[in-house]
Amino acid sequence: MTVPKKIIDRYCELKQEAPDCILLMQVGIFMKVMNDDVEIVSKLTGLKRQVTGDPDNPTITGGFPESGINKYVGCLVRAGYSVAIAFQDGTTKERYIKEIIRLQK
User: Fold this and answer.
1) Domain ranges of the chain
2) Rounded distance, CA 89 to CA 47, Å?
3) What residues form DSSP beta bridges with 61?
4) Which of 7, 35, 46, 70 has a CA between 20 and 30 Å from the CA of residue 55?
5) Does domain 5-101 have CATH number 3.40.1170.10?
């Protein structure tokens, strides 16, 4: 599945808002993870990675159904990572970080 440049760009913008977190971004009924974040998620959960975007500047992505969000977030937090979740607004289809989950120390 090809990920539109607009989605990749928005992911990168949101990642700048929470650079210390693994960013999960809703795209339809899926949660997408990209670039360095997908490498971490893949190692911890076995999430399959794929290459998309411009062949001269490819983006590594992965995704899972939104229904699996508790499983993935739980795994990441137990491994010591903070997680930012960007949900998609049902009306405007815009995505914003709605929640950041961090371990309390």
Assistant:
1) 5-101
2) 25
3) 34, 50
4) 46
5) yes
Query: For the whole prediction, is pTM greater than 0.70?
Result: yes
Helices marked H in the chain: 5-17, 35-45, 69-78
Q: What pLDDT score does 76 carry?
A: 96
82-88 and 21-27 beta bridge pairing: parallel
Sign of CA dihedral 32, 66, 71, 50: negative
Provide the token pair at 45: 């959960």
Nearest Cα to 53, choosing from 95, 11, 97, 96?
Answer: 11
- Tell me if residue 28 falls in helix, strand or coil: coil
Q: Which residues of the chain have pLDDT under 50?
A: none
d(CA 29, CA 14): 19
Q: Which residues pair with 33 in a beta bridge?
A: 62
